[in-house]
Every structure is written in C-alpha cells, then in structure tokens.
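Appendix C reproduces, verbatim, an entry submitted by the partner laboratory led by Prof. M.T., so that reviewers can inspect both the input and the predicted structure.
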Amino acid sequence: RERGDHAYLAEEVAADMSRGVGARPGFSVEIVDPTQVRDVMTPVVFTVTLDTPAPRVVEQMLNLKVHHLFVVDEDRALVGVISSLDVLRHLKVE
C-alpha cells in the first residue's frame, strides 16, 4: 500500500491506537466478545487538509454523519484528527 492511500492511512491509525494497549500490572485482560474491529469499523477514512476552513469541517461532519475527520498534509500524510468536540471547544464562549 502506498503512503496516502486510505487503506494505508487506516492501518497507520490502527497501529498508533494499539501501541501501549495491554494489561496493567496487577490486572488481567479477559476477552469476552470475539468481535473484531474490522466487523464494526467504518471502512472509509474521511479526510480534511490543514487549511480546510472550520465551517467546511462542520459541514462535512454533518453531511457524512461522523464525529471525527482525519487531517492530512499536502502529501496526504496523517497529521492529526479533528473531532466534533474539538469544534465545540473552539466555539465555547468564555
């Protein structure tokens, strides 16, 4: 898979998220549900660029019915994630 390819991006995100996952000392992990991520994940990765205007991000989240969009740079490399909560924090009146 090539860098910037949606499948590559999904694999990179999954790898990042799995780092550090495991039982803490004194605890054990019991798998009670054999369901795998591939069975419940959204199989498409929706992206925006670093210079996407905030109103466009909100519009995309609403149209796509998602709470997260992955942020990519000009080379389509993953640089972050923006969530609906990030948008709400930005709009918060102090």
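The domain at 6-19+32-91 is CATH 3.10.580.10 (CBS-domain). Additional entries are available on request from the coordinating office.
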